[in-house]
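hey so i finally got around to running both of the ones u sent me last week. sorry it took forever, my laptop kept dying halfway thru and i had to restart like 3 times lol. anyway pasting them below in the order u listed, first the sequence line then the structure token line for each. didnt double check formatting much so if smth looks off just lmk and ill redo it

first one:
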Amino acid sequence: MTPQQRTASAGLVLAASTLVGIAIHESYTDTTVIPVPGDVPTMGFGTTTHADGTPLKPGERTTPPRALVDLLRDASKFEKAVKRCAPVPMYPYEFSSMVSISYNIGEYAFCHSTMVKKLLVYDYKGACEAILLWDKVKGRVVRGLTVRRQDEYKECIGPQAQGVPA
């Protein structure tokens, strides 16, 4: 078996497994909530805006089917952000982890992050390691974010680095 090659970012696509991973990490809520103090209203699987880009307001509600549609719409937006900000070849698992973290931290934060700086100089290991830096809110470590970042890091480094046969 030949080693897998990194794929040009333009050729990478959002995988169903990425959507499932985001949904699991974000959890589902049918009403807007503030996930952590100081955050913006969120509902469904981490959605913060309506389709037209307007922010959610406290008290708004959703349904599981609508939340899934919103998840796909939002994840597609972050898929494009990863391609635009880090237009380098990646393995699908690297790309998936970058879409997941960008979904959670936002496009601006992702595009200006150490992860992107490392990717742009082809430091894939360093980019994956930089994921672990994003486990804080206002300087305080949040256990749920630590767990999520560890999962994203493991995904980013790939199965071979984890000792799993290809």
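and the second one:
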Amino acid sequence: MGERSNPIKLVVLDRDGTINEDRDDYVKSADEWVPQPGALAAIARLYQAGWHVVVATNQSGLGRGLFDAYTLNEMHAKMNALLMPLGGRVDAVFFCPHAPEDDCRCRKPRPGLFEDIGLRFGIDMTGVPAVGDTLRDLQAASAVGCTPHLVRTGKAASLDEAGVQAMREKVPGLTVHADLAAFVDALLAAEGRRVADGRRA
């Protein structure tokens, strides 16, 4: 799947539309934070396979005054509380709090969140698998050399094949999956093949 070897196994996930249900009026509270079917179990499988799971998410609702940082923390506390009994966890959440007009570097499709993740973990982001449901998620990831993966959930659920093809043309090396669980299936299968090939070498 194109991922390179790093000192740690790291995967970067978008949040709204990828891990949890997206809303046109923004996810504004922990009650409104509802996981996508199978997404939390998929994250748990990654964690149990030794992957560090990091979230990179635009949260312009903060900049728009729709919720505060305490409420955002409550959403992420709920996410990890739901992951715990499944044997999973998210190591860190990197978020952009700005509104579009703030013209910041951290709002996807700009790469600031991914640059910050590389600095925090002390790794080259080249080849790190990154998953999202929108073009801007994938453009931000590709800008730092991550391997882009589109999930057909959230905003991408309504994409037709022409829309997917248009996205492939804008994001070289894009792999498309039905959902986060399908991405994890593919990632762990590819990892298993690499391990098997290494044993045979």
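quick thing i noticed on the 2nd:
The first strand starts at residue 10 and ends at 13.
anyway thats it, ttyl
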